[in-house]
Amino acid sequence: MSKVRVLVGTRKGAFVLEADGQRKKWVVSGPHFPGWEVYHVKGSSADPQRLFASQNNGWFGQVIQRSDDGGKTWHQPGTPPGEPQKPPSGTAKGESNKFAYDASPETGKPLTTHQWYDGSQRPWEFKRVWHLEPSLTDPDMVYAGVEDAALFRTTDGGENWKELSGLRGHGTGPLWQPGGGGLCLHTIIEDPKNPERIFVAISSAGAFRTDDGGTTWKPINRGLRSDYIPDADAEIGHCVHRIAMHPSRPNVLFMQKHWDVLRSDDAGDSWREVSGNLPSDFGFVIDVNANEPETIYVLPIKSDSEHFPPDGKLRVYRSRSGGNEWEALTSGLPQRDCYVNVLRDAMAVDSLDKCGVYFGTTGGQVYASPDAGDTWAPIVRDLPPVLSVEVQTLR
Amino acid sequence: MIRVVLPHHLRTLARVDREVALDVKGTVTQRAVLDALETAYPMLRGTIRDHTTRERRAFIRFFACEEDLSHESPDAPLPDDVASGKEPFLVIGAIAGG
Question: How far apart are CA B18 and CA B7, in angstroms?
């Protein structure tokens, strides 16, 4: 019997929501890490019982947590599970929370500053991990997208992290500047057919791609137009909110930009707008149906000045044609007086048939659709503001 | 033994009670106490001091004997009552946020 496990990161802790393949009755556990911001929780597809979580707050900084039993228990990698009251010994090193930018003479210079809001240069300063992307094949390898924007990787299950500094160092790094939410690397997508190829997205620098396993990178923003930067067609400076890919077609990418929904059919070399008849093409999330690579989902938000759904109606929009023609999905979603937001990492899909679609709101609701978006129901209504939603399909 | 009182979230991370006891060699300073704390509880590394610079994180304060020692030199001797174990060294999270 299939199961689904929904991993929810919130402003005040993490939650694990589990159901069988019917996706009707849910068991909720948590809060894990209560009182901490949990930007992201994600499971390894190579070992579904292994989960990684990014735990952070302004007082005590960044903590990486790992579970090897599907979220029942957690520990900091390098500190053995259930480490007792007494001082630990042996392999514990306390390095799992260390994200040090590459400052080596060989590869780390001159990666010393980036652009600030006022145009001045400011030193790179680590703030938090926004996104954890486990390797598709290696349970010990995970990529971390951080603020200030950089990409890190662990190859030992999270015990140590090393920057892939070729991203910041490819040339445009000093021109990157933060969006309203900070200079964050929030999207990491591995190409399942080409392990050397990875896509990332940064607010507000744009999208980037490596074809050599993370050593060298190039911007992939041709076709993006952003009226909020001096040169609307610039190579970088675009506030990409989210990119999604169907694993069967890694050259086809879908993007929710600050404004505009776009697609690429050439692995990001060029983009074209597919916003079509959306009531607003501003938004944060975008995702692809697991069974239908041309079926995509967005959740329109009114504008960058008013971060809530148009007309107070919470509507997911679905396109079955890869964009341009969109239909509103409203059954089970509030259609009046709804003024929540859905943040960029807060939508996910399972891989059952029919595809389940899930999203979490800043109002603390996590909605699930077990029928590809036709109908919706809340799994929970009163969590802290939701920062991220991921789903594991367990068979 | 040096007594150190930790704030709630760090107690949770270290899986300890409110107060821990540390054996500190040599002169008892902030640096020596925090080094001993992080050696005993490596999961706390980076949560009180920056991983790289070893400077106190902005919203952390150090109190002892009714004094705020946060801005004292990390290498200054702590009060005798802390060194003798009569009084604890308190790691405090600043009151802020929502």
Answer: 7
